[in-house]
Amino acid sequence: MSLQQEFNKKGFVVIKSFFSKDEINELFEEIKSTSQTHASIESLNVGNLTFNSKLMHKSQKIREIISQPKVVNLVSQFLGPDFWVRWDQAVEKGPGATTFPWHTDNSYSQLVDPHCQFWIALTEMTKENGGIWMLPGSHKQKSSHEYDGRHMIYSGNTDRAEFVSAEIGDVVVFSSFTLHSTTPNITEKSRWAYVVEYMNIKHIDPYMVKPLLIVAKEGKPHLEYVESLPGEGSLYNKLKYLKPRAKWRQFKKDLLSKGV
Fold this sequence. Notes:
This protein is an alpha+beta fold. Helices cover 27% and strands 27% of the residues. The protein has seven helices and 14 strands. The chain has helices at 3-10, 21-37, 60-65, 69-79, 105-109, 235-240, 242-258; strands spanning 12-15, 49-53, 83-93, 100-103, 116-121, 132-134, 146-147, 152-153, 162-164, 171-175, 180-182, 191-200, 212-217, 220-226. The strands form three sheets. Strands 1, 2, 3, 5, 10, 12, 13 and 14 form an eight-stranded antiparallel β-sheet that branches. It is globular and about 50 Å long.
């Protein structure tokens, strides 16, 4: 079974030793350095679970790493030859950090189209240190979520969930429609991951602040900041976000009325 076939069937694939230890060390040091000088304040931070996003916009080295040929070659198998990065974030799950509930990433992004999650293991991921669980095949169906004041939560059946074990340098690629969760870190060391969200250049994010970072064209690395994507002028893309935008405005209005 090819990677693309496995991805289409399960909603995720694991690529072992995609990055060497030296490559991970270089990326990890750059993430730490950039995070220290450009820390972001994230609403999902709680206790020893912390996120630092949009690091790609703050580091040329990170932009080069996430657009290098072998990354573009891999992601092209799932998205096609032209894509951009809508989001990235470094995630530290420190000792004592709690569960991150079951969810799809589209429940947070509020997007209609899928994006490809590129999860890099900066440290070993185990059941004990809060590694990731996936629900195979869940990307093929719509999953309802409820908002609890912090998280978008899926509370359906997850009995078929699989734990994804990863060593340093492994990569987990999964659909933003795939249900996943991470468990508490009961060890004495932090679990680190760096996640990049790639999206086909035809698909837009109407909520994203410009400029936007294109990383691949015609299956080759292509770093370019743009003020708009080709699909933004599409009537189809405009129409399919009319209802989601109205729903999102009502959702925010309801939160404000509740004092959230």
